[in-house]
């Protein structure tokens, strides 16, 4: 599956340059070139840092280092005027004349570091200032640091979803692996976060149906990028729902939900906060959390119908 045929040895930079404006293609290519430097630090930074981020979450040493590395590297491109990150107390404003604003989750799934499980990075790229809905994204990217390092990107507007693989140790090029990816018509796997005892009755009923009705296999690795990638390749559903303790969910709209929703919808799937596409959710707070549901359209439609039915029942 991961052997790239000779006739498909297209680099990330060449692919982006063929389809996108020069400035956006350059930024995407430069983001790809940052990965080897990040991965080289992984074995050296496994301690827990003596700091917390703005959400009160204890940082790993690698969290803090990766955030600083990406901020510096993005600024050096000369193409980024502002950076919003889960690990920054406030946005980093640098160059008012630069074309892009970047959001990032620099190390998604960092709780997996201590057990040597998968984690990754999520980027959202805008031309306009934030806040803005996900419809204003001009590019979404995620990098997955697994046994094989991959990068997936889309520029929206029907441009498609494309996956690249870093081929050889020490090289900074990503080579095309899959072009114009689409979710399989029938889902195969699902992953759901949060404590099941805190799920709503409507969502619990829907989740049981994933086993009984749809015969999906449960897959949950504890990193959004990893679970998302399984659904992208195999079809199905990923969710971090609203719960009794966290009615707004856990994942954050700008740093995680919106960029991944763009990729999911460009691949023929759907996203939802329980009632509308995550790309249409309009929240002024950059740090806002949102219930998240992504996957095959038929599963998202079934989920929204179950939630609506439960809401109607309670109103009667």
In short:
This protein has 316 residues and is of the alpha+beta class.
CA(first)-CA(last) distance: 53 Å
Q: What is the approximate shape? A: globular
- CATH class wording of the largest domain: Alpha Beta
Strand content: 15-25%
What share of residues is helical? 25-40%
Which residues form runs of ≥5 with pLDDT under 50?
none
User: How many separate helices?
Assistant: 7
Say what the CATH topology of the largest domain is: Fructose-1,6-Bisphosphatase, Chain A, domain 1
Largest pleated sheet = 8 strands, mixed
Query: What is the total number of structural domains?
Result: 2
State the secondary-structure class.
Answer: alpha+beta
Notes on the structure:
With 316 residues, the protein is of the alpha+beta class. It is 32% helix and 24% strand. The strands form three sheets. It has an eight-stranded mixed sheet with strand order 4-3-5-6-7-8-9-10, with helices on both faces. It has a five-stranded mixed sheet with strand order 12-11-13-15-14, sandwiched between helices. A hairpin with a 6-residue loop joins β3 and β4 (92-93). α1 (12-19) packs antiparallel against α2 (22-41), α2 (22-41) runs antiparallel to α3 and α4 packs antiparallel against α7 (297-315). The longest helix is centred in the first third of the chain and has 20 residues, at 22-41. The protein starts with 11 loop residues before the first helix and ends with a helix. 43% of the residues are buried. The mean pLDDT is 90.
């Amino acid at each position: 599956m991961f052997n790239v045929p000779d006739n498909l040895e297209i680099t990330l930079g060449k692919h982006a340059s063929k389809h996108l404006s020069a400035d956006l293609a350059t930024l995407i290519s430069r983001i790809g070139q940052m990965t080897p430097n990040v991965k080289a630090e992984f074995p050296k930074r496994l301690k827990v840092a003596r700091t917390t981020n703005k959400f009160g979450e204890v940082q790993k040493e690698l969290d803090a280092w990766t955030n600083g590395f990406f901020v510096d590297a993005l600024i050096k491109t000369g193409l980024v005027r502002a950076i919003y990150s889960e690990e920054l107390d406030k946005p980093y404003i640098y160059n008012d004349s630069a074309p892009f604003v970047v959001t990032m989750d620099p190390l998604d799934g960092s709780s997996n570091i201590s057990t040597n499980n998968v984690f990754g990075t999520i980027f959202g790229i805008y031309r306009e200032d934030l806040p803005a809905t996900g419809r204003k994204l001009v590019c979404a990217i995620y990098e997955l640091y697994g046994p094989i390092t991959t990068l997936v990107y889309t520029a929206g507007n029907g441009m498609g979803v494309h996956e690249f693989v870093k081929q050889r140790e020490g090289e900074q090029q990503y080579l095309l692996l899959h072009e114009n990816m689409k979710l399989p018509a029938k889902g195969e796997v699902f992953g759901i976060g949060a404590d099941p005892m805190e799920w709503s009755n409507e969502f619990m009923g829907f989740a049981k149906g994933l086993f009984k009705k749809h015969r999906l296999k449960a897959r949950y690795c504890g990193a959004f990028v990893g679970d998302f990638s399984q659904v992208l390749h195999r079809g199905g559903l990923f969710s971090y729902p609203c719960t009794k303790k966290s009615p707004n969910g856990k994942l954050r709209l700008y740093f995680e939900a919106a960029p991944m929703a763009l990729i999911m919808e460009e691949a023929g799937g759907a996203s939802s906060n329980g009632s509308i596409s995550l790309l249409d959710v309009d929240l002024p707070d950059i740090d806002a959390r949102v219930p998240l549901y992504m996957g095959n359209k038929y599963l998202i439609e079934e989920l929204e119908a179950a939630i609506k039915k439960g809401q109607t029942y309670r109103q009667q």
